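F.,

This is the one I mentioned.
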């Protein structure tokens, strides 16, 4: 049985064109980018070209791009690295942040900072009135993600950044789920730092970047040889960085066409979800075009994911980062979703290779699986 992959918010397959760009640096061009001989020089040129490609998709200068190992490291670098230069005051993060922002913020709270979680509306959008209320207190750091990894809801980061700047706070956004799906412009957002990652846009795992304002002072959280302008020591992962750059260039060229196509597929899916009586989370808010997050009131999400996998469809129960947890989604709870409904949540995230036929087949399979699970539940009761 061939499985159909509908979990692209967890990770994406490496595009063949990206793999082709990487292969020389996995074979004969294997030099260390810090070495002074020809092998090293070629590797350094490749890294700097990739830096230019990443910078171009985000509308920044290459010098602002700091390569790291993943989105988790980039988010930690901002939270901990910026906090090291500031007097402990308040750190404000949205209540729907990825754990790799939420947990470093909690660590600051144990080190003398005050942690303020910013509220979201029932549609999953940041509550700007709550941002205003939070920033009446002295605040050093603010972090609000650009697109939520579960609901796909796009946040008004520019509006938050404007408020943060007025309050003289450093503003960060985790744009990992947004990059390559919608236009992401660092300057237009008005942020001081932004996290982006390769493996969410058909690049390899193991490469990401923190994009930083030139005025932002950060303390490195990894000590060593002083790579990446002293902000991230460690031998550069040249093949992965090259792949990251290639993926960004590819994404920039096909973003508009791909977004329109995936949006049409999602519309078809959600028409059927509504017919089946599903609750769609964040459906009234602006969303990245590939994501649908839904639940049936009387069906457990984990059971639905397992049964769909058995019939050949890969979807997710919430976020991949917390898939081992049996607790309801923190994002949905922050949106005011009752815990019993939140436990039924399933995330469906489309990718470039998905087709309308696959969506149609998924709808049929979902209807059958849901009917079977309801029957089993009724028998158990």
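My design for it:
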């Amino acid at each position: 049985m061939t499985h159909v992959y509908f979990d692209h918010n967890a990770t994406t397959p490496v595009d063949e064109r990206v793999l082709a760009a990487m292969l020389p640096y996995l074979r004969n061009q294997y030099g260390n980018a810090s070495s002074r001989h020809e092998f090293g020089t070629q590797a350094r040129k490749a890294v700097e070209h990739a830096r230019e490609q990443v910078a171009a998709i985000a509308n920044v200068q290459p010098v602002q791009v700091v390569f790291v190992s993943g989105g988790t490291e980039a988010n930690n670098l901002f939270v901990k690295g910026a906090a090291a230069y500031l007097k402990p005051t308040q750190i404000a993060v949205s209540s729907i942040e990825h754990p790799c922002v939420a947990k470093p913020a909690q660590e600051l709270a144990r080190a003398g900072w005050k942690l303020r979680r910013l509220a979201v509306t029932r549609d999953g959008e940041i509550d700007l009135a709550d941002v205003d209320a939070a920033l009446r207190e002295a605040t050093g750091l603010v972090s609000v993600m650009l697109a939520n990894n579960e609901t796909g809801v796009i946040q008004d980061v520019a509006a938050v950044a404007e408020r943060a700047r007025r309050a003289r706070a450093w503003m960060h956004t985790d744009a990992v789920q947004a990059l390559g799906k919608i236009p992401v412009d660092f300057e237009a957002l008005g942020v001081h730092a932004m996290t982006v990652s390769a493996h969410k846009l058909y690049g390899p795992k193991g490469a990401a970047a923190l994009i930083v304002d030139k005025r932002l002072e950060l303390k490195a959280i990894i000590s060593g040889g002083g790579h990446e302008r002293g902000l991230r020591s460690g031998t550069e992962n040249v093949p992965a960085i090259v792949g990251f750059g290639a993926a960004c260039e590819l994404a920039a060229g096909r973003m508009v066409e791909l977004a329109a196509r995936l949006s049409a597929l999602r519309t078809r899916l959600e028409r059927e979800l509504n017919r089946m009586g599903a609750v769609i989370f964040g459906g009234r808010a602006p969303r990245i075009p590939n994501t649908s997050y839904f639940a049936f009131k009387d069906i457990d999400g984990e059971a639905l994911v397992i049964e769909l996998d058995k019939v050949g469809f890969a979807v997710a129960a919430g976020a991949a980062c917390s898939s081992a947890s049996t607790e309801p989604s923190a994002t949905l709870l922050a949106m005011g979703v009752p815990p019993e409904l939140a436990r039924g949540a399933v995330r469906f995230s489309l990718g470039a290779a998905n087709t309308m036929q696959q969506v149609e087949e998924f709808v049929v399979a979902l209807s059958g699986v849901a009917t079977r699970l309801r029957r089993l539940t009724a028998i158990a009761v």
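The mean pLDDT is 95.

Talk soon.
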